[in-house]
Amino acid sequence: MRITKVDHIGIATRNAQEVAAVYKEFGLAVEATEEVPSQKVRVTFIPVGETRLELLEPTSEDSAVAKFIETRGEGVQHIAFAVEDLDGALAECERAGMRLIDQTPRQGAHHNAIAFIHPKSTKGVLIELCKRRS
Ligand code: ZN
């Protein structure tokens, strides 16, 4: 598989506006906000060069991000790698014996196709593979 970059870093937040104010102190500005119903989150995008921070604010108590905050608190929730061939990358992960959260890609923010790898397979880091629809 060929990973081209860190696409984004997902950060679990209770209040994205408050968290965005912290990054503003670093000179980083919010670009846009988008609701992603499939993941029950509102996403606030903060570009950092080629990569983005994605502030994830749950829109429902049963969202995975809400559960993450409950057990681990606010902070980095996942790292997303951009890949050119998402189906191929998933098949490779499966062959390597990794536990896939998504057997097939689903739609994420920005209409990207995304799939998550379980943190039990990666020594504790939730990894997202994503393919930008450009
Ligand atoms: Zn993500």
Q: Keyphrases for this structure?
A:
134 residues, alpha+beta, 2,3-Dihydroxybiphenyl 1,2-Dioxygenase, domain 1, 3 helices, globular, binds zinc ion
Low-confidence stretches: none
Bound molecules: zinc ion
Name given to the CATH architecture: Roll
Rg over CA atoms:
14 Å
Q: Note the overall shape.
A: globular
CATH class: Alpha Beta
What class, by secondary structure content?
alpha+beta
The SSE string, one letter per element, is EHEEEHEHEEE
How many strands? 8
Q: What fraction strand?
A: 35-45%
Give the overall average pLDDT. 94
Major sheet characteristics: 8 strands, mixed
Description:
With 134 residues, the protein is of the alpha+beta class. The protein has one domain (3-131): 2,3-Dihydroxybiphenyl 1,2-Dioxygenase, domain 1 (Roll), CATH 3.10.180. It contains three helices and eight strands, in the order βαβββαβαβββ. It has helices spanning 16-24, 64-72, 86-95, and strands spanning 3-12, 32-36, 41-48, 51-58, 75-83, 106-107, 113-117, 126-131. The protein has an eight-stranded mixed beta sheet with strand order 2-3-4-1-5-8-7-6. The radius of gyration is 14 Å and the shape is globular. The model has no long low-confidence stretch (mean pLDDT 94). The structure holds zinc ion. Residues 8, 10, 54, 78, 80, 108, 128 line the site of zinc ion.
